[in-house]
Amino acid sequence: MKPAPFAYHAPSSLDEAVALLAEHGDGAKVLAGGQSLVPMLALRLAVFDHLIDLGRIPELRGLERRGGTIRLGAGTTHAAVGSSAEVAEAVPLLSRATPFIGHFQIRNRGTIGGAIAHADPAAEYPAVALALEAELETVSPRGQRTIPAADFFTGTWTTALADDEILTGVTFPVWGGRSGHAIEELARRHGDFAVAGATVALELDDDGRVGRCAIGLLGLGSTPERATAAEATVTGTAIADVDAQGVGEAAMAVLRSVPADLHGSADYRRRVGAAMVARAWRRAAQEALHG
Amino acid sequence: MDEIEIETRVNGLARRGRVEPRLTLADYLREHCHLTGTHLGCEHGVCGACTVLLDGAAVRACLVLAVQADGAEVTTIEGLGEPDALSPVQEAFRDHHGLQCGFCTPGFVVSVTAFLRDNPDPSDDEIRAGLSGNICRCTGYQGIMKAVRAAARSTP
């Protein structure tokens, strides 16, 4: 046994979970799939007196298409997201990001809510949520609220969630029309955290111009990032005239604190990041043009 | 901390135990159930040596708390075959030199069993992606690749 001792609670409803979290305060942590939390406990990077397991709360699971959006319960596993034909049709980026997350054994346990609440800056789902302007639903003793993804990620492993607040669901907008979606990342081995990665969604208008686009970046800051300035420069441009490498370089211009470690310097990561954006842009553009 | 009573089915047998919440499923299997075929390498979710099936899904037993497995069905390497009646995957690993020191082998065999159940006719790239969650420090991956290809052929 490697983790420090803790008390374990397995509520069967969300109300019960909220009450337990309120009761035990910041000595408590919610346990989702456990694929990041349990290693941190094993390494004693994190120590809690109480773990509140959300795994036995049926209302946190499942997905629901509502008109122009799709809502995923926070407890939906990566495996369920990745194998859902409905997700593949509604939010292709989520489906395509899924195989990059760890390995299939991790994806069988890990959950979308856990990944987003954990807020690793190199993780895939947070970058997709940020770029696509997902809405994050939460509950606490003060009631429910919805947090836009743009306001959610505040730092490495840090979010706008209060200590007594639980992420319950994630709602993504469905992009229609002539759209294309792609994710690219460079990792030393498949399933490792990315050195740098990028997600691109773009939609063409009737005249073949970029009607709108969203560029997400992962592994390139203390949070997932969105390259809004680069998006603005290409929106309205004929898709044939867009220089993908230029988009990649423009996307890197927004970055303020690119990490440097033994896997790469900040300069190296910027070069990789620009290349990932360019590759993802080309693939997304191909898809938007030719299906 | 208070111990918690859990009930599981392990390799078809009902098991009841009292565990500390911090006990991982891997330690529960090894120390409480005395099923030492589930090996522990890194104990933080990197190496895959402890892979077991939890309600049929391959998982890292070091990243599941025993209390989380309460009510679940667990299959370990011991539940896949017997020494005189190997499973098709075990047979293929033996026939194609899919193991050297053998430490990582239980995790590979369990992972591959789940992988081939869900992907009965995989390409080489799919096999490599399917094996990516398990590490062999003898680096005997070519034999493992051959074994997986052979097991895929032998289980139509």
TrEMBL record, chain A:
<dbReference type="InterPro" id="IPR005107">
    <property type="entry name" value="CO_DH_flav_C"/>
</dbReference>
<dbReference type="Pfam" id="PF03450">
    <property type="entry name" value="CO_deh_flav_C"/>
</dbReference>
<dbReference type="InterPro" id="IPR016169">
    <property type="entry name" value="FAD-bd_PCMH_sub2"/>
</dbReference>
<keyword id="KW-0285">Flavoprotein</keyword>
<keyword id="KW-0274">FAD</keyword>
<protein>
    <submittedName>
        <fullName>Carbon monoxide dehydrogenase</fullName>
    </submittedName>
</protein>
<dbReference type="Pfam" id="PF00941">
    <property type="entry name" value="FAD_binding_5"/>
</dbReference>
<dbReference type="InterPro" id="IPR036683">
    <property type="entry name" value="CO_DH_flav_C_dom_sf"/>
</dbReference>
<keyword id="KW-0560">Oxidoreductase</keyword>
<dbReference type="InterPro" id="IPR016166">
    <property type="entry name" value="FAD-bd_PCMH"/>
</dbReference>
<feature type="domain" description="FAD-binding PCMH-type">
    <location>
        <begin position="1"/>
        <end position="177"/>
    </location>
</feature>
<dbReference type="InterPro" id="IPR051312">
    <property type="entry name" value="Diverse_Substr_Oxidored"/>
</dbReference>
<dbReference type="InterPro" id="IPR036318">
    <property type="entry name" value="FAD-bd_PCMH-like_sf"/>
</dbReference>
<dbReference type="GO" id="GO:0016491">
    <property type="term" value="F:oxidoreductase activity"/>
</dbReference>
<dbReference type="InterPro" id="IPR016167">
    <property type="entry name" value="FAD-bd_PCMH_sub1"/>
</dbReference>
<dbReference type="GO" id="GO:0071949">
    <property type="term" value="F:FAD binding"/>
</dbReference>
<dbReference type="InterPro" id="IPR002346">
    <property type="entry name" value="Mopterin_DH_FAD-bd"/>
</dbReference>
TrEMBL record, chain B:
<dbReference type="Pfam" id="PF01799">
    <property type="entry name" value="Fer2_2"/>
</dbReference>
<keyword id="KW-0411">Iron-sulfur</keyword>
<dbReference type="InterPro" id="IPR002888">
    <property type="entry name" value="2Fe-2S-bd"/>
</dbReference>
<dbReference type="GO" id="GO:0016491">
    <property type="term" value="F:oxidoreductase activity"/>
</dbReference>
<feature type="domain" description="2Fe-2S ferredoxin-type">
    <location>
        <begin position="4"/>
        <end position="80"/>
    </location>
</feature>
<keyword id="KW-0560">Oxidoreductase</keyword>
<dbReference type="Pfam" id="PF00111">
    <property type="entry name" value="Fer2"/>
</dbReference>
<comment type="pathway">
    <text>Alkaloid degradation; nicotine degradation.</text>
</comment>
<dbReference type="InterPro" id="IPR012675">
    <property type="entry name" value="Beta-grasp_dom_sf"/>
</dbReference>
<keyword id="KW-0001">2Fe-2S</keyword>
<keyword id="KW-0479">Metal-binding</keyword>
<dbReference type="InterPro" id="IPR001041">
    <property type="entry name" value="2Fe-2S_ferredoxin-type"/>
</dbReference>
<keyword id="KW-0408">Iron</keyword>
<dbReference type="GO" id="GO:0051537">
    <property type="term" value="F:2 iron, 2 sulfur cluster binding"/>
</dbReference>
<dbReference type="InterPro" id="IPR036884">
    <property type="entry name" value="2Fe-2S-bd_dom_sf"/>
</dbReference>
<dbReference type="InterPro" id="IPR006058">
    <property type="entry name" value="2Fe2S_fd_BS"/>
</dbReference>
<dbReference type="InterPro" id="IPR036010">
    <property type="entry name" value="2Fe-2S_ferredoxin-like_sf"/>
</dbReference>
<protein>
    <submittedName>
        <fullName>4-hydroxybenzoyl-CoA reductase subunit gamma</fullName>
    </submittedName>
</protein>
<dbReference type="InterPro" id="IPR051452">
    <property type="entry name" value="Diverse_Oxidoreductases"/>
</dbReference>
<dbReference type="GO" id="GO:0046872">
    <property type="term" value="F:metal ion binding"/>
</dbReference>
